[in-house]
Amino acid sequence: MKRNRLGKSKLATVIAVAVASVALLSAGMAHAAADDVASLYGPQPPANASYLRVLNASSQAARVALAGSEAPQTLAPGAVTRFSVLTQGTAARVTVDGKALADAAGSAKAATRAGDAVTVALRHDATGWHATQIVGRYERVDGLKATLRAFNFAPGCSAKIGVDGNGPTVFAQVAAGAQDTRAINPVNAKLVGQCGAAASAALPLPALAAGDSYSLFVTGDAAKPVLSGARDALAWPPAAN
């Protein structure tokens, strides 16, 4: 009887050790899985964030600083910043060559809802810098396809964007000051922006994969449209000071 009791005690101990080992293994596997997800998707901005970026639609470089996570930088003609992440309560501001632009700052106030994304286009004339804005949403249309966004900053132009050489139409009509979005299968193509009979130079699309997001910008004017583009990218996580 004594040996049976000892045997049962030893068996209980073995079972307890086994259960503890399985629990530790499961916890380790869960932690490893979480690390894999984090390495795949990277750190994500807060769910209530809004977004702000600047496009230099002028013919001269500009020193640009914007509120949020993106660092100040010199923006070449035709270049665009990454999306600066604005956490809740952060005032949206755009400064060009050391001067805050009232029209840009006023337009950026529209980015009040979570997920709103403001693109501010800069122009320069004899009186200085000016800005116009288009407000959209920062979201992907289809994770299995590439997302294309079209922004029309050309005044007086109802823009059409299609494949060069009388190819298929990608965006049939984007009104001045408006944005459109669609999902496409990743393809190699050259696109052309049109305002009526006036057409831009052809813009080669980069190699896009499923899940990628790319923006097209129609600038210039109705008589001479310009088509440019950039990958959509977040300035996140913020750079360490």
Write the SSE topology.
Layout: H1 2-41, E1 50-56, E2 62-66, E3 73-75, E4 84-86, E5 94-96, E6 99-100, H2 102-108, E7 116-125, E8 128-137, E9 146-152, E10 159-163, E11 169-174, E12 179-184, E13 190-195, E14 198-199, E15 203-204, E16 213-220, E17 225-231
How would you describe the overall organization of this protein?
The protein is an alpha+beta fold and 241 residues long. The protein folds into three domains: 1-43; 44-139, Sandwich (Immunoglobulin-like), CATH 2.60.40; 141-234, Immunoglobulin-like. The chain is 20% helix and 38% strand. The protein is built from two helices and 17 strands. It has helices spanning 2-41, 102-108; strands at 50-56, 62-66, 73-75, 84-86, 94-96, 99-100, 116-125, 128-137, 146-152, 159-163, 169-174, 179-184, 190-195, 198-199, 203-204, 213-220, 225-231. The strands form four sheets. Strands 10, 11, 13, 14 and 15 form a five-stranded antiparallel β-sheet that branches. Strands 4-1-7-8 form a four-stranded mixed β-sheet, covered by helices on one side. β10 and β11 form a beta hairpin. Residues 19-41 and 104-111 have low confidence and may be disordered.
